[in-house]
């Protein structure tokens, strides 16, 4: 059949184009669009047909009728209610199921009006029920978690504005494996295939905290996650599990920031997480759990400590209520003195009711069972009831999960066992003189070998770890400071070598090893460790003389390189430890070189009395490391001294110093603070060039001075610098520092500055100890120099 004649379409030049070409393209596009709509309608019809057939089955069972009658009844009821058959089918299923999806639908019915969805849309209860039931049907029909994730996004989450879905499977070690995803590229999924234990992500937060995590904007919290580059907006992670055990985590992402959501939206998300849990339990989801209790029983019998094998005990609704003690090994020792036969087979809370205390043993077991994250504590209090009397016992506890079973191991400790444990740790770490410092009471325990090592009598008070530098060679002060900072502030095990100067004049080379001890809540209980005399090792290791000579030569070369690097640093920037007094103003400085001693830094400080009787105070930081940075630092520091003799104010001095940096150096850029103190008026004027502001400690409080304008030195040829002024009062302390004191690789600078203010508020007897305290407890972890200048007005 011939097509009707169409008018010619004019070309750009005005000539008519062939009519058939344009109309054929239009017809083809219309045909494609019509076929696409037909395919979509067919898909929707197939997906809705499963819900309608399920509703018919419910009517057959309740009305005791046939399939034809049930179909007629469904059509009649839908017409009378003014609903489609699909909407009525979803409502019938909700009434019959009474599950999370029906709760979400009821939440919409109970709301005053249509609830706003994250994408800006609104929805009625029937729409919600249809979408969730359709997503449920798609998930149940899916052959694997991947297909289920795609169904969740298409049917339930896309109408809420979400664009990304990830279903994580929780491993037995609290790791996360990507089991299914939608809205993400295959490359992104490969990059996030596996998340090891301990990596902080939104999904791990939901797993460990065992609750839904709502993030208004992923890009603002700094947690890495899948799809964060293309979907930096709202993010929700929901733990998905059954029977008290978390099988995985459902993660949903939005491209834009997520406003606070109403309860009905939250119920929808929880209903979808429950679907994920059932999907992960299916043959295409997580690995089958299997019966691992016999394996755990065999493992418990082989352990040298008391061990219990526990299995979850669920109520009729499938909720975890307790744990059944399935097995106790032959070495089991009950804190209440009961035999194994009394405890085996009982519920945990029946046998040990006091384990239900807040954050007690039951809570730890429940957390391990839910997340798979193992728990260990060297000292944990176990309380048993003996004739209604609470009997506490201290034990080392380990809890691990294997499948559905939990293995609980404990070792009761008495006073003799604690001393034996101390000796065991001393042998493990290769120590000669052992010690333990109680962080709660301040009590210090030394053994006799340590007294002999120090050349002290046994009745003399032990020396605290914090005073170690006072008994060592001055050149070892930097290494000891880093060691104390690692153990006392960062609370990690550490070791260092130093030269011990004994009271009898003998110098010994010592290696000290220390490790912190925590309770079950992560609080520091004690610091224990040992001192080892390494000065006579070559006499006791004759059989390894050749190897040791070669090692000693290598160590000597390394020590010589470090010594030369340290001498170069000190020649450029001497780490002065002697305070300076001028006009009732006490000035103290500290300089800590970089962790890698061969890197010469560009940090500087200066404190000098000018001819005008004013006191010049300055700190600065030249960008980079190496000889170039050190040379630029010397130029700027000396130039500032010379310029200060003119009597100009700090703002003008920095403007001149900027000219020096821009024109008289090789592309040197730096930050700096310049301050002038007038002893007659007690006024301190200051200016900054892109540097961190000073901190004023007054009356037990610490605060940063108000920022003044000024860009870094050397960036442009001409720059103006604003001045600030503060009137110092008696006992005021002013602190100026470089960013090496607070800079961290894993956190924002503002957070580190706030922690520095909290550390600066710590009371200290004098200015020097305040500076030492700041260095020891500084929160930095970057390889950078640190300059710290403190002044105190008497």
TrEMBL record:
One term of GO molecular function: RNA binding
Protein keywords: Hydrolase
Database matches in Pfam families: ANTAR (PF03861), PAS_3 (PF08447), SpoIIE (PF07228)
CDD domains reported for this sequence: PAS
Record has Hydrolase as a keyword: yes
Residue segments, region Disordered: 1-24
Xref: Gene3D superfamilies: 2.10.70.100, PAS domain (3.30.450.20), PPM-type phosphatase domain (3.60.40.10), Winged helix-like DNA-binding domain superfamily/Winged helix DNA-binding domain (1.10.10.10)
SUPFAM superfamilies, per database record: GAF domain-like, PP2C-like, PYP-like sensor domain (PAS domain)
Residue ranges occupied by any PAC domain in the UniProt entry: 494-546
Keyword Ribonucleoprotein tagged: no
Residues of the ANTAR domain: 32-93
Extent of the signal sequence: none
Designated name of the protein: Serine phosphatase RsbU, regulator of sigma subunit
Protein species of origin: Nonomuraea pusilla
Phylogenetic lineage: Bacteria, Bacillati, Actinomycetota, Actinomycetes, Streptosporangiales
């Amino acid at each position: 059949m011939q097509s009707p004649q169409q008018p010619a379409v004019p070309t750009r030049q005005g000539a008519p184009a062939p009519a058939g070409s344009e109309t054929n393209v239009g017809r083809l596009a219309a045909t494609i669009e019509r076929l696409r709509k037909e395919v979509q309608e067919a898909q929707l019809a197939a997906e809705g047909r499963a819900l309608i057939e399920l509703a018919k089955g419910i009517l057959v069972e309740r009305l005791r009728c046939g399939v034809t009658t049930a179909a007629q009844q469904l059509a009649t009821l839908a017409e009378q209610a003014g609903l489609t058959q699909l909407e009525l089918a979803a409502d019938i299923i909700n009434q019959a199921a009474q599950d999370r999806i029906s709760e979400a639908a009821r939440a919409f019915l109970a709301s005053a009006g249509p609830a706003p969805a994250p994408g800006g849309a609104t929805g009625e209860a029937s729409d919600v029920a249809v979408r969730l039931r359709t997503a449920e049907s798609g998930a149940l029909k899916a052959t694997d978690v991947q297909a289920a994730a795609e169904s969740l996004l298409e049917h339930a989450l896309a109408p809420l504005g979400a664009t990304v879905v990830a279903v994580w499977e929780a491993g037995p070690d609290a790791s996360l494996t990507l089991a299914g995803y939608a809205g993400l590229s295959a490359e992104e999924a490969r990059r996030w295939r596996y998340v090891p234990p301990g990596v902080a992500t939104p999904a791990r937060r939901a797993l460990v905290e065992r609750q839904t995590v709502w993030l208004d904007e992923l890009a603002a919290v700094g947690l890495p996650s899948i799809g964060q580059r293309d979907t930096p907006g709202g993010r929700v992670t929901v733990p998905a599990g059954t029977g008290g055990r978390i099988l995985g985590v459902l993660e949903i992402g939005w491209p834009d920031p997520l406003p606070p959501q109403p309860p009905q939206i939250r119920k929808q998300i929880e209903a979808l997480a429950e679907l994920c849990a059932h999907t992960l339990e299916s043959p295409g989801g997580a690995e089958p759990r299997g019966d691992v209790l016999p394996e755990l029983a065999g493992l418990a019998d082989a352990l040298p400590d008391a061990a219990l094998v526990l299995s979850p005990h669920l109520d009729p609704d499938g909720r975890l209520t307790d744990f059944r003690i399935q097995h106790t090994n032959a070495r089991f020792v009950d804190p209440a003195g009961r035999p194994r036969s009394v405890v085996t087979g009982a519920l945990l809370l029946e046998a040990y009711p006091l384990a239900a205390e807040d954050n007690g043993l039951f809570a730890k077991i429940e957390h391990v069972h839910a997340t798979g994250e193992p728990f260990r504590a060297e000292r944990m209090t176990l309380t048993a009831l003996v004739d209604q009397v609470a009997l506490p016992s201290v034990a080392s506890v380990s809890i691990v999960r294997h499948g559905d079973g939990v293995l609980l191991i404990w070792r009761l400790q008495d006073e003799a066992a604690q001393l034996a444990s101390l000796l065991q740790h001393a042998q493990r770490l290769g120590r000669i003189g052992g010690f333990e410092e109680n962080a709660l009471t301040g009590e210090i325990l030394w053994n006799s070998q340590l007294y002999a090592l120090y050349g002290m009598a046994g009745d003399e008070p032990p020396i605290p770890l914090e005073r170690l530098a006072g008994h060592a060679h001055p050149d070892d002060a930097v290494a000891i400071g880093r060691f104390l900072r690692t153990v006392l502030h960062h609370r990690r095990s550490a070791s260092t070598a130093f030269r011990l100067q004994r009271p009898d004049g003998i110098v010994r080379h010592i290696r000290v090893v220390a490790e912190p001890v925590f309770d079950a809540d992560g609080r520091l209980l004690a610091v224990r460790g040992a001192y080892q005399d390494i000065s006579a090792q070559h006499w006791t290791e004759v059989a390894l003389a050749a190897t040791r000579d070669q090692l000693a030569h290598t160590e000597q070369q390394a020590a010589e390189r470090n010594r030369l690097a340290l001498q170069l640093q000190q020649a450029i920037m001497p780490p002065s430890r002697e305070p300076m007094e001028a006009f009732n103003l006490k000035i103290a400085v500290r300089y800590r070189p970089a962790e890698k001693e061969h890197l010469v830094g560009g940090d500087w400080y200066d404190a000098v009395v000018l001819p005008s009787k004013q006191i010049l105070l300055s700190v600065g930081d030249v960008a980079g490391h190496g000889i170039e940075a050190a040379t630029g630092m010397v130029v700027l520091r000396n130039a500032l001294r010379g310029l200060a003799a003119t009597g100009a104010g700090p703002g003008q001095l920095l403007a001149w110093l900027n000219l020096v940096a821009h024109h008289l150096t090789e592309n040197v850029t730096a930050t700096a603070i310049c301050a002038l103190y007038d002893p007659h008026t007690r006024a301190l004027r200051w200016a900054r060039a892109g540097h961190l502001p000073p901190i004023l400690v007054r009356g037990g409080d610490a605060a940063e001075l108000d920022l003044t304008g000024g860009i870094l030195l050397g960036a442009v040829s001409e720059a103006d610098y604003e001045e600030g002024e503060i009137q110092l009062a008696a006992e005021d302390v002013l602190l100026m520092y470089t960013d090496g004191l607070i800079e961290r690789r894993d956190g924002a600078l503002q957070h580190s500055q706030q922690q520095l203010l909290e550390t600066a508020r710590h009371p200290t007897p004098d200015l020097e100890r305040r500076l030492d305290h700041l260095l020891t407890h500084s929160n930095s972890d970057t390889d950078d120099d640190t300059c710290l200048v403190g002044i105190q007005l008497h």
